[in-house]
Amino acid sequence: MYDRQVRRRRAILLALVVCCLVLLTAYFGESSGGPLKSVQTGTMEVVAPVQEGANRALKPVRDLFGWFGDTFDAKDERDKLEAERDRLRAEVARLQVAANENAELRDIVDYARSSGLDAYEPRTARVYSRSPSSWYQTIEINKGSSDGLAVNQPVINGKGLVGKVKAVSDGNAVVMLLSDSEFGVSALAAASGQPGSILPVAGSPGDLLFDLVPEAKEVRTGDTIVTAGTISARLPSPFPQGIPIGRVKRIEGEGELDRTIHVAPFADLRDLDFVQVLTEPTADLRAATP
Amino acid sequence: MTWNAASVARLFAIALVGGILQLTTISQVAIFGVPADLSPLLVAAVGLLCGSIAGASFGFGLGLFMDTLLAQTLGLNSLVLLTAGYAAGRLRELRDPAHALVPVAVGAAATGVAVIGFSVLQFLLGVDAPVSLLLVRQTLMTIVLNTLLAMPVYLACRRVLAPYLPDDPRRRRRRAYTTGGLSPLSRA
């Protein structure tokens, strides 16, 4: 009985395997219009409507699974896009910084060229540090004595006077800004020619005082204030004449003695990336007042 | 298994519904980048439930059905699936495993046999297209996915074929134990 079962089982298995091999052989051997392929095509045509119906009926199920898949894919895609966005954001920030630096450098170069400051051997330097103190308004730049910098040399940017070199080492220097409490420069009102001194207002970096003006009533709001340069051979000024400092923004007081002239510096002292140090400030001045 | 027209009709129904479900739905849903393959799971389930002859015959028929509908080389899927069905059936006949996770293991093994066997046959028949190493990854992912689906497929098949099946091995053993057949008390 058992042997019969085994024989039967093996016979069926053998028959099925032989069927498969025959099918394989016949399928490979026949042409495209052969009987097996015709049967295959016919069966496909018969079952096609069933498949189509099932395909429609099961679409919600497929969509449900597809929704899960899409959700996973969307999350994956979102992560990728977020990474790309972060990369592009960093790229945009880098390019914006580069564009700003480019514009600033272009301003500096254009300004130095157009105002004749090339004669003073300007050295362009990058600002890499700022003093956090309101009293000591200083910046540090990446050029030093090895680049020809020395103490008291004037520092400008594309807008006008920024300050002067306060201390210098071999590879860097400290620049005292116009707004530093110790800063002072002889100046004059470009329109009226009234001389005076530019002094800082402690704690207000955007405000300077044009003081010690002999005839202050001659100075008007909106007048441009420039460096006076050397007036007396006994007291040479480290600043060449005609470097723009700022514009008179308001005048307080009516009398001659109590008149206070407030000047807004042209240079934005809180946003300095590049400056130029005039390393030959005593050269002949051919700068023109803008 | 009790063989009669009704039981054979149910096997036909499983093959038909499973095949069409595979083609119309399962194949179009990619999870982990690959679709599941119900065919080896169905064959393994039928083999485990009904024995080697039923498993081999069911595998042959389902393979032929799939080859026909997919316009593939006739006999390829049949050969692979009848092997998987026969092996699953022999496992049941020889070992009569009772562990609850046997369908999962058998489903995974049957999937492995089917996928790898199909690939080997394709190579033997000569594949013109270049074969990427990603095929290995896809094979593994299909096995993993089918392993997850093995138990539900097995339970569904058992439910359909239940009226024609002998007792479940675990139930049979439990009954034997409680009626004294395998009870330690009967030895006393």
Compose a concise summary of this entry:
Chain A has 290 residues and is α+β, with helices and mostly antiparallel strands. Chain A contains 3 helices and 12 strands, in the order αααββββββββββββ.
Question: Which regions of chain A are unreliable across 5 or more consecutive residues at pLDDT < 50?
Answer: 285-290
Strand order of the largest sheet of chain A: 1-2-5-4-3-12
Radius of gyration of chain A: 42 Å
How many strand segments of chain A? 12
What letter string, H or E per element, gives the SSE order of chain B? HEEHHHHHH
The third-level CATH topology of chain B is Arp2/3 complex 21 kDa subunit ARPC3
CATH class of the largest domain in chain A: Mainly Beta
Spans where pLDDT lies below 50 across 5 or more residues of chain B: none
Helix content of chain A: 25-40%
The appropriate CATH architecture of the largest domain in chain A is: Beta Barrel
Q: What count of helical segments of chain A does DSSP give?
A: 3
Structure notes:
The complex is a heterodimer of chains A (about 290) and B (about 190). Chain A is an alpha+beta fold and about 290 residues long. Chain A folds into two domains: about 1-55, no CATH class; about 120-280, Thrombin, subunit H (Beta Barrel), CATH 2.40.10.340. In chain A, about 35% of the residues lie in helices and about 25% in strands. Chain A has helices spanning about 1-30, 35-55, 60-115; strands at about 120-130, 140, 155, 160-170, 175, 185-190, 195-200, 210, 225, 245-250, 260-265, 275-280. In chain A, the strands form two sheets. In chain A, strands 1-2-5-4-3-12 form a six-stranded antiparallel β-barrel. A six-stranded antiparallel beta barrel of chain A has the order 6-7-8-11-10-9. Chain A is rod-shaped and about 135 Å long. The N and C termini of chain A lie far apart (about 120 Å). Residues about 285-290 of chain A have low confidence and may be disordered. With about 190 residues, chain B is mainly alpha-helical. Chain B has a single domain (about 5-185), classed as Arp2/3 complex 21 kDa subunit ARPC3. Chain B is built from seven helices and two strands; from the N terminus they run αββαααααα. Chain B has helices at about 5-25, 40-50, 50-70, 75-95, 100-125, 135-160, 170-180; strands spanning about 30, 35. In chain B, strands 1-2 form a two-stranded antiparallel sheet. In chain B, a hairpin with a 2-residue loop joins β1 and β2. The interface of A and B includes residues 12 and 55 of A.
